[in-house]
Amino acid sequence: MTPPPAFFLPGWGFGRGPLEAVLEKSRWQCMDLPGCGMEASAAASASIPAHFTAAVDALLAQLPPVCALGGWSLGGMLALAAALRAPERFCQLLLVAATPSFIQREGWTFGRPPLELQAFRERIRQEGAALLPRFAASFCRGDAAPQTAQWLLQNASHMSQAALDVGLLWLEEADLRAGLARVGCPVTLIHGENDPLIPVEAARWLARQLPQARLAFLPDKAHAPFAPDAAACARFLRELPRP
Known about the structure:
- The chain is α/β, with parallel strands linked by helices.
- It has one domain (6-187, 196-238): Alpha/Beta hydrolase fold, catalytic domain (Rossmann fold).
- It has helices at 17-23, 52-62, 74-85, 114-127, 132-139, 148-155, 161-173, 200-209, 230-239, and strands at 6-9, 28-30, 67-72, 90-96, 187-192, 213-218.
- Strands 2-1-3-4-5-6 form a six-stranded parallel β-sheet, sandwiched between helices.
- β5 (187-192), α8 (200-209) and β6 form a beta-alpha-beta unit.
- α5 (132-139) runs antiparallel to α6 (148-155).
- The protein starts with 5 loop residues before the first strand and ends with a helix.
């Protein structure tokens, strides 16, 4: 029997480009964040969902009735949110460097300070994609491969200013801590042991809440654990059990 199709969502800011090399020769197909593909120009910015819940709606509308779904960082949050909204539609989740809440909230200390994200949003409005090299360098601190940030930047897809702005709003809005027991499908979580952006405690907490979770820490890796050795990560993906 042919397994259901498998789709993978990128993180904020870098598009699908860095992931295409990783997903090559695996069963996982890379897709864009809702409304944020390479074709999303200023003229097409109206197609970008304005809020996180609308982005989840748009994602569900794009997907087949049953599939496997994965994502890196913000993409992982969208994948998890889709499974919370319609658990019957997903046979497997693959969450890389994901968290149920990117920012700190009441009862949640494993996120970034809200004022930090708000300040970053203002800097993105002023500097746009010119800020991405500094951002990549910051979240790759602790990665054993010194070329990881440069590899991400070299492989990044163009993202419109509108996509950058709205993606940060989605990160501010998303809180996926409630109802995680509804996600009954197998979930693989992959997290870099040295991730400075989303702490390992967030991944451990998430794994405890999901009924069928498997958590794998990658030593000496930071927030982009698949880079720059795309071949090694591709081998890991091929070894994942199929639904």
